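Is this the right way to post structure tokens for a design question? Let me know if I should format differently. Anyway, here goes:
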């Protein structure tokens, strides 16, 4: 039997769950860590060394090792391919309507003196754009969603010794989300008639970050970077499409909704080796403390019935991601420089089987990447391109995937692949 209270809670929970981000889109969950072509070419294993303005985002302590004033701008083209199959055979197979996401990024780094540097990054580190067919078997959970969380990130670096730099920064994070779902109403005559809901919301959060870069030897680089958790409250509106024949609309009427979530702590440790003058090898280990996300607070300030407000359990778990990157300076002449990059790694999802849904059919991932960087030295111009392919291991969940008294309500098998292509143009002004 259809239960309005349970449905409304799940509708809003799933919609605002997308706002939480998760580690890696690719890098896991909804995080778009792939925020620069130079870094993507090395699978983002750049915490210990990145001779590029985008180090402002990946480890701002690296700003103190750059020269002069440098800026970089570009975009990442994200092309997800999601496939669904019903293991119980009750619904037809489906795939997402292909949608290319193009989050932009901009970086600026200025080395003020031998000891001090400052910089700014702007990008979209969390995002999602997923559209299923209108007859999708899971349309009662999601038909489409689009989410963006922007990051405005000023940073300051201090280099007390030639081999050591430390940095601190401020995270300003506005966000938007749109969610659409379909579901059945019971009419006054006892028939099932399909309706739906559309959600839209805005949120804002503030956090901090800290970075260290240490080069004790000419051939050894060590890096550490930490982003704090960010508490965000989203304020939005729920518009219900109630079909004709449903007389009681006391619960499902257009109204405001609020959701409180916490983006988790993120840290990464990196080590790099200058194996040869022209060859650099890097290894990163990312850690995200997702276990702090055990529920989402949902509030309907104008709901007179008092039925819709709820704390929704999630049971997310910590994740660890190893990354390997290689950078080869293939050509270094007075006028030209050409750099070739490679990388790869393995990522795990934060979402357990009993809460996995078609809103974000996440899974364990294996990713590989490559890239090129060309510099025309007289003008200080560099063009970078990076490509990454992420293969999600097939994942099946069913009604027997339970924890305590909660079981997954939507049996499904998911197969996913994501292609990413990033392009940047950078300029060393002086």
């Amino acid at each position: 039997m259809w239960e309005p209270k349970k449905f409304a809670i799940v509708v809003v929970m799933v919609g605002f769950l997308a706002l939480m981000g998760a580690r890696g889109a690719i890098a896991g969950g909804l995080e778009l860590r792939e925020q620069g072509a130079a870094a993507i070419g090395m699978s983002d294993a750049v915490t210990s060394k990145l001779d590029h303005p985008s180090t402002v985002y990946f480890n701002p302590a690296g700003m103190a090792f750059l020269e002069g004033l440098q800026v970089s701008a570009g975009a990442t083209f994200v092309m997800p391919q999601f496939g669904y199959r019903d293991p119980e055979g009750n619904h037809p197979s489906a795939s997402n309507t292909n949608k290319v996401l193009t989050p932009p990024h901009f970086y600026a780094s200025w080395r003020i003196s031998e000891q001090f540097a400052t910089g700014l990054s702007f990008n979209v580190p969390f995002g999602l754009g997923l559209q299923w067919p209108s007859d999708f078997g899971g349309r009662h959970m999601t038909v489409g969603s689009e989410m963006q969380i922007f990051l405005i990130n000023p940073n300051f670096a201090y280099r007390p010794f030639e081999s050591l730099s430390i940095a601190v920064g401020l995270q300003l994070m506005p966000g938007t989300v749109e969610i659409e779902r379909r579901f059945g109403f019971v009419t006054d005559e006892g028939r099932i008639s399909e309706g739906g809901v559309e959600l839209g919301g805005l949120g804002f959060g503030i956090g901090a970050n800290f970075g260290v870069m240490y080069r004790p030897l000419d051939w050894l680089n060590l890096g550490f970077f930490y982003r704090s958790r960010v508490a965000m409250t989203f304020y939005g509106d729920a518009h219900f499409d109630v079909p004709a024949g449903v007389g009681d609309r006391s619960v499902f009427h257009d109204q405001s909704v609020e959701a409180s979530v916490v983006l988790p702590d993120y840290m990464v440790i990196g080590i790099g080796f200058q194996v040869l003058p022209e060859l650099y090898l890097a290894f990163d280990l990312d850690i995200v403390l997702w276990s702090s996300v055990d529920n989402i607070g949902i509030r309907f300030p104008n709901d007179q019935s008092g039925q819709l407000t709820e704390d929704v359990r999630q049971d997310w778990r910590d994740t660890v991601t190893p990354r390997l990157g290689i950078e080869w300076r293939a050509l270094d002449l007075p006028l030209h420089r050409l750099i070739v990059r490679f990388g790869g790694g393995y990522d795990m999802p934060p979402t357990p089987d009993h809460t996995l849904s078609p809103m974000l059919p996440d899974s364990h991932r294996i990713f590989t990447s490559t890239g090129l960087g060309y510099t025309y030295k007289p003008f200080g111009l560099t063009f970078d391109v990076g490509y990454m392919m992420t293969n999600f291991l097939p994942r099946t969940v069913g009604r027997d995937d339970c924890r305590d008294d909660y079981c997954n309500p939507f049996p499904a098998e998911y197969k996913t692949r994501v292609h990413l292509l990033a392009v940047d143009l950078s300029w060393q002004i002086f």
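Format looks fine. Someone answered above. Worth noting: The radius of gyration is 23 Å. Residues 4-17 form the longest helix (14 residues).
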